[in-house]
Amino acid sequence: MNITPDPWIWLSALLTLAIFSFLFRDNILYQFAEHLFVGASAGYLIAITWHNQMVPNLFEPLFIQGNIVYIIPLLFGLCYFARFIPKIGYLVRLPIAFLIGWGSGAIIPALFQRDILKQTQGTLFTTEAFAKWDTGLWAVIMLVGVISVLIYFFFSQERKGIMKPAANLGIIFLMLGFGASFGYTVMSRISLLIGRLQFLLGPWLGIIE
Amino acid sequence: MNIFKALTKIPRQVIYVVIAIAVTIPLLKPIGLPIRIMPKSQRLFAAIDSLGPQSNPVLISIDFDPQSMPELYPMLVAVLRHCFARDIKVIIMTLWPQGPGLAEIALEQIPKEFNKEYGRDFAFLGYKFGVTAILLGMGDNIKSVFPVDYHGTPLDSIEITAHIRNYDDLSVVITLSAGDPGWRAWLLFAQARYNAKVGIGVTAVSAADVYPYVETGQAIGLLAGMKGASEYEILVHEHGYSEGKRTATQGMDAQSLGHLVIMVFIIIGNIGYFVIRRKK
Fold it and tell me: What pTM, to 2 d.p., does this model score?
């Protein structure tokens, strides 16, 4: 064992243990670490937004370089604060309308391309997919899965006849998907624990390299 | 209390302690369980491996924070080692405000292992707020979005960024993403709109969501969680690119034992539940 004398690693290790103490029960050490984290994060975000966003993108061009056009985004931004003054509160709609309009125009076509066109294309049978027997089998399973799940979410017709077994098959595919997601979630959480243990056993206690 | 009822009511503190022990032991005494390389990781590795010193730079976006370091930081280190070992130029940026600190840690260590020089072999553009405007703007002109690098040097005066204009001048974009903004935005704008080659590394919790995009070829490859990171580390090691420390691979024994314990608890809980239900 080779315990570090570095005070920052000690601080980090003690805060980690304070957070872990919540696993036993809520306590003052956990609350201290949690509040410290929230405060430090908020302060960091404010500082980085100021230095990384406000100063180079607005204040420098407007007040130092004298580029008068930048007064438009400044006024638009200030409109957000109109919410605090009831008489001119309606002004907040201006930047919101701009953001929604611009955002929708920019995002909707790309979203359609990413999630509808390409994904539908990927579900279709191609000669490439059937070049090997295993990829062909997966292509068939995928198509059956997509169609049965779509039938499960089709609510305009009563589930009888062929619709009933198809929807039930859709449930099986959905459950498999949820199971895979849950398995990956467990993996993710265990990874976080491993990361902290590697830190405690490594840089702090010096037990592992 | 009936034993089966007790099985369904194991105190959570007991479960935590057992998991902690199961995860700690392999960290102290590695078992060396085999790790199989998944095709999706192999594809990303192959895409980078096909590049060389004459190729356009690879762009790596650090879209995560310290909370996701155990899964994503080893990916960053492994991809950097792979690129530097093959003399591929690397440009780094981040869409997360916590990203610059993580980039500094990696760039302090990895380039030194390969004698790489800032400006000639790699550059760090820093953090910018506003995902949509940033990624769309980069499709038009990267220098309009990042006129200067993280240190305030104009991109025109940095060797590897001087001739870069947009995504067309990048070989591959790799996003190491812990959520939003991250892989979804890169696929939405860089890939769907500008047809950039996008490789993705994600935390395991997001991996199932990325699969459909890899299947359709919208993403050129996927590294999923600590397992994906360890696969990339192994590939880099096996190809003789680096002998450096492999953090994710060291954690995989612990990962496997942790999973085993959770599976056992799930089975125990279910046995208790079904036996009680049958008795009723």
Answer: 0.91
